[in-house]
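#data-curation
PF: Archiving a pair of folding outputs for the training set. Convention for this channel: one message per protein, sequence first, structure tokens after, nothing in between. First:
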Amino acid sequence: MQPVTLTPAAAATRGAIIDTAERLFRTLGYQKTTVADIARELRMSPANVYRFFPSKAAINEAICARCLAGLDEAAWAIARGPGSAAERIRALFQLLQRETQALFFHERRMHDMVAAALEESWPIVEEHIRTIDTAFRHIVMDGQTAGIFARLDPDETARLLHGSCVIFTHPLLVEKCFRKGEDTALLAGKLADFCLRALRPD
């Protein structure tokens, strides 16, 4: 089946498919929602949905991309924003913790999709990881220029900072490592301070 040319009308239909699929994911769940469910809600045939997305996996990735795009934009707003490099590192840790908490504990049906995206290494997730690494790198280089961070390799340092956040950004670790009601925001702040001490110049 030939994909449609993305005219304004086609783009609107594609957007409606994503909107409908996301709403169903949030009510029925990621795994239970089928292309037939999406088509039924839109009063179109499944074949018409497949004209815009070659598979349900493509719809999944489009929704995941939408979820992560907001987080990427917020991360860069912090990285390029006001405040010292240390303040921005803390803010980025807090952002990642807060958004993870909202998704995994308040949007449980969306949790399954994000968990699958991480486990299966969807391309959009790999791109998101690189984006957050780069945001950390930007702040690290600002801190080095200001003389408040040690002259460590900025790429490696950014990767280590991002890796330090994994305990509260990976869905499986969030589920396994934290007791219900545990203050992950407090942990994020303490972990940021720990990393900042390691970044101080000798």
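PF: Second:
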Amino acid sequence: MGRDKASLDVGGIPIGLRAAAALAAVADPVLIVGNDIGGGYEVVDDARRGPLAAFAAGAAALRARGHDGAILLLACDMPFVDAELLASIASAIGKADGAIPVAGDRDQPLAACYSVRAAVTAQKLVAGGHSAMRDLIGALRVHRVEIDETALMDVDTPQDLAVARRVRHPRQSGLL
């Protein structure tokens, strides 16, 4: 994209703040891993080594603050994921190590819920030089949750951003 995706505007709201608000409605505390997006959220640095390292950094920061339960993860570039969807994903974890939404045949590990065991596994994988979430998913027992594809749309390119700005997903209303 050439700029911080969290600051991209969709529907008059930066998508990073949109994601943080969705998380804050169902999770406490909410930590932002990466750049400060505003909104008063605590920020944790991730050394920009990929999504697995960012997850591991966030999980370690949560543990350091006394959080000892499952972790709800949401990347900043999914403008149509809302609190209802996140609550549904979190409730699907059961005894699995992770609840991963899937649209069609595509897993979306960056809008998922992970157990404490998954966080420990992520730390070990990062220490071993891994950087991809698929490495984590391959090491876990996961429950896949079928989700509407539009809800999981992410903004990776200027074309994606243009589409997101045109789409008014039913879940989009009510955020912020």
